[in-house]
Amino acid sequence: xxxxxxxxxxxxxxxxxxxxxxxxxxxxxxxxxxxxxxxxxxxxxxxxxxxxxxxxxxxxxxxxxxxxxxxxxxxxxxxxxxxxxxxxxxxxxx
Length: 94
Description:
By secondary structure, the protein is mostly helical. It is built from four helices and no strands.
């Protein structure tokens, strides 16, 4: 079996964190409709900051969730831009 190099580990991490974030947005939307206990906005944005920004953006689009909240409407795309810029920088500098 081949060893996992750092790039594979990073790819797996981002795939998992984005999938988890996407489904957390869906779960929170379902809970909102059912008037149940909700996932905090800090937790949802925190998942985006931890690497799940694409999952957050897709969750907002697919589940139509948090799209009217300014901190999500502008915050999630801003997080994506920062993470992409950081990724490009690290890719070319390291």
